[in-house]
Backbone:
């Protein structure tokens, strides 16, 4: 069983750094056979990272209009349904189009993971240089636990 | 969504992807003539310039690498060259060669992403890379292999692919062993074969007849090689500048419709940086294989059709693979992997050829190395007036086409320049507004 955890986002864009914070919070708790990557959301890099995986758990920031710090969970089907329409994906991930694009492109190239889960945190402030908002920072431990729970389900 | 009123006609496109970052374009047509073309760009370097003030002279490579996820190496290398210049240190020999090798990885990765996934769909009537993948999966699988080779080369030399951590002012934290690089050579040879095939693929695309007369501007290295790192800035019309002379020769102006500053050469006007300029000024400096691939692809020694920039990029990928192999072959592991760069008060400038064109940095240092001021001029802000110029004339040539045709052509023309509008989101809004003169400002043929 090949499992991969992928954090998405930059550390230079406020709450876009939530994935980096979650990866840090995971520390040594991720099983040794799980690959952990930090990416910027560029679709072909994502496709390379999840190619051949049985499970890919993605961590991202989201913008849906929900209160900052709200946690969202999406599966592959949600991303493919989001497709390439106008406006951001329904999930409102800050890499929404990139993620939906990557899923659709991955499918067209026969390079999707068997299962894909996105754990996202509602962002408040995406300005370059801003620190994590308090509500987003407060959600980090629960998202880290969520990643471990997803991994435990696929062993 | 198109809506009409008797007085005006507005076409609006949301969620146009396939440029790096966020931007918007507005075309205004009054009485059947192009009145105005505006490219709106959100550009983060301004923020980073402020962020750099007060930081140590060793920090710009790490900080500026975060400006762009697609070309972090160019930001790091321009930063290193500028800081080293301020400190009176010149880094050459095996360390400079290793930097060049790292840079080749970025050209391979960035160009291949743009050629196959962002730009090729335009020429093949596909709405996106997804549609293209459904139609020609082997072509995109081949591109994925090339891109991954570039990505892995950056990881091998740079420590990781996004925000490489290994480069530093003075050189590298750690230099790879010769056997590590040699083990990668087979991957690069395969990527080079794939890149040659990719160039032949794009050479067969249909290209609109469209030639531009912009001043072509690129770096010129004194070692006779294709420009990547350092050297002087030259043009096809006699420009010849040292890095320290750039600021005095170029005016950056604020325009209302963009946070990006527009660059113009004083008394010369708009100019073009990037693959077309590099290629046209340095054709003889390509490796023999890359030159042959260019000729086979139907390119002459110069290329002034921005739509053919996709072919030039493919040729540069071949060149970068070829040159990376030569660099590995001649590799001497630098020991130590970095030279000391003791700070001193002063100003330093440095430039490199980012995949999209020349990228210039300037740092003013205090005696202890604290950064008093920083300035960054990225390729996209230099090309912005040129892109608008192209759009103006393209729209004028096709003024009687319907909005949909016009929109498609304009989007493609913007993507000719692979504008890096770098940051979190990926939108380009395009509006075409047609109206009669009496409903708005007086009609004119443009300015």
Residues:
């Amino acid at each position: 069983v090949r499992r991969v955890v992928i954090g998405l986002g930059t550390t230079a864009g406020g709450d876009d750094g939530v994935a980096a914070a979650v990866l840090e919070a995971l520390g040594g708790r991720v099983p040794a056979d799980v690959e952990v990557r930090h990416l910027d959301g560029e679709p072909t890099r994502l496709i390379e990272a999840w190619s051949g995986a049985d499970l890919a758990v993605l961590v991202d920031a989201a913008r849906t209009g929900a209160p900052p710090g709200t946690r969202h969970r999406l599966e592959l089907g949600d991303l493919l349904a989001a497709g390439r329409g106008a406006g951001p994906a329904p999930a409102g991930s800050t890499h929404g189009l990139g993620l939906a694009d990557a899923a659709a492109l991955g499918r067209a190239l026969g390079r999707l993971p068997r299962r894909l889960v996105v754990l996202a945190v509602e962002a408040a402030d995406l300005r370059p240089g801003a620190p994590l908002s308090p509500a987003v920072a407060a959600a980090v431990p629960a998202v880290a636990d969520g990643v471990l729970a997803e991994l435990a389900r696929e062993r | 969504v198109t809506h009409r009123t008797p007085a005006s006609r507005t076409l609006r496109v949301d969620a146009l992807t396939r440029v790096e970052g966020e931007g918007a374009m507005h075309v205004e047509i009054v009485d059947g003539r192009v009145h105005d073309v505006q490219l709106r760009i959100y550009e983060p370097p301004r923020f980073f310039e402020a962020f750099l003030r007060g930081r140590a002279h060793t920090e710009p490579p790490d900080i500026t690498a975060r400006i762009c996820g697609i070309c972090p190496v160019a930001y790091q290398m321009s930063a290193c060259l500028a800081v080293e210049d301020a400190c009176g240190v010149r880094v050459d020999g095996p360390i400079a060669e290793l930097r060049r090798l790292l840079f080749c990885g970025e050209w391979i990765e960035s160009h291949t992403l743009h050629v196959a996934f962002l730009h090729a769909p335009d020429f093949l009537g596909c709405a996106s890379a997804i549609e293209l993948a459904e139609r020609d999966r082997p072509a995109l699988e081949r591109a994925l292999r090339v891109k991954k080779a570039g990505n892995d080369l950056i990881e091998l030399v740079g420590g990781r692919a996004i925000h490489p951590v290994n480069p530093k002012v003075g050189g590298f934290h750690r230099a790879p062993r010769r056997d590590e690089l040699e083990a990668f050579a087979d991957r690069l040879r395969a990527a080079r074969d794939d890149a040659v095939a990719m160039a032949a693929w794009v050479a067969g695309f249909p290209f609109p007849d469209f030639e531009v007369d912009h001043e072509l501007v690129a770096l010129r290295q004194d070692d006779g090689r294709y420009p990547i790192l350092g050297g002087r800035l030259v043009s096809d019309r006699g420009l010849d500048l040292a890095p320290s002379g750039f600021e005095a020769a170029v005016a950056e102006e604020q325009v209302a419709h963009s946070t990006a500053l527009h660059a113009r050469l004083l008394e010369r006007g708009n100019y073009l940086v990037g693959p077309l300029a590099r290629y046209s000024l340095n054709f003889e400096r390509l490796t023999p294989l890359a030159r042959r691939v260019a000729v086979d692809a139907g390119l002459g020694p110069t290329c002034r059709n921005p739509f053919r920039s996709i072919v030039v990029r493919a040729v540069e990928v071949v060149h970068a693979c070829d040159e990376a192999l030569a660099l590995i072959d001649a590799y001497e592991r630098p020991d130590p992997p970095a030279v000391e760069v003791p700070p001193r008060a002063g100003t330093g400038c440095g430039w490199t050829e980012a995949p999209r064109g020349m990228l210039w940095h300037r740092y003013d240092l205090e005696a202890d190395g604290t950064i008093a001021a920083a300035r960054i001029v990225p390729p996209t802000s230099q090309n912005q007036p040129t892109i608008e110029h192209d759009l103006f004339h393209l729209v004028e040539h096709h003024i009687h086409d319907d909005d949909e045709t016009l929109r498609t052509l304009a989007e493609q023309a913007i993507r000719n320049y692979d504008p890096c509008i770098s940051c979190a989101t990926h939108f380009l809004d395009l509006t075409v507004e047609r109206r009669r003169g009496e409903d708005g400002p007086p009609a004119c043929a443009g300015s």
Summary: Confidence is low (pLDDT under 50) at residues 84-96 of chain A.
